[in-house]
Each structure stands twice: as structure tokens, then as C-alpha cells.
Amino acid sequence: MNLTENLDRKLTNMSWWLEVFTTHPWCTYYFGAFESLQEAASAQDGYIEDLSAENAGRITAQVIWGNPRELTICSEEN
């Protein structure tokens, strides 16, 4: 497989995701995959509300283009 084929394959498997960070617990969550940047951005408030209802601390979010390896990553020190 040449470089162009490899790049095309990687880009084909990528999507828009919502990446959400919390400090209590210290976690990163990935929600998606979404078909567009706008779809991911419009879903953001609902995910933040759900985490707030679970008393998650200091929630920040951003929309990313990619393919996360894991959907939830938490520090062992929680």
C-alpha cells in the first residue's frame, strides 16, 4: 500500500466527534461519530447536561475530526 492509499484509508475512517473533559472524575469522553461539525456541535449541550447531572466537575468540550482509540479514558487516581 502506498502513502496515498494509506492516507485515503485513514481519512475514510475518520468522523466528527465530541471530546469532553471532566476533572471529577478526571476523564476524557468521546461521543459520536457525527456526520458533520454542526451535528456534533448541536449535540454538545445534551452530553454536558448529562455529565453535570452526574456531578462531573469542570466540564469542557470541543469538536474534533478523528477516530478515537477509546471512548472513555479515565485517570487511575479518581
Query: How many E-type strands?
Result: 4
Q: Would you identify the regions where 5 or more consecutive residues have pLDDT less than 50?
A: none
User: What is the C-alpha radius of gyration, as a whole number of Å?
Assistant: 15 Å
Number of self-contained structural domains: 1
Helical proportion?
Answer: 25-40%
Query: How is the main sheet built?
Result: 4 strands, antiparallel
Proportion of residues in β-strands: 35-45%
The neighbouring-strand order within the major sheet is: 3-1-2-4
Shape category: flat
Q: Report, as a whole number of angstroms, the end-to-end distance.
A: 43 Å
- Overall SS class: alpha+beta
Mean pLDDT: 89
Count of individual helical segments: 2
The ordered string of helix (H) and strand (E) elements is HEEHEE
Sum this structure up briefly.
The chain has 78 residues and is α+β, with helices and mostly antiparallel strands. Helix content is 35%, strand content 36%.
Write the layout of secondary structure elements.
Layout: H1 3-12, E1 15-23, E2 26-34, H2 37-53, E3 60-66, E4 72-74
Antiparallel strand pairs: 1-2, 1-3, 2-4
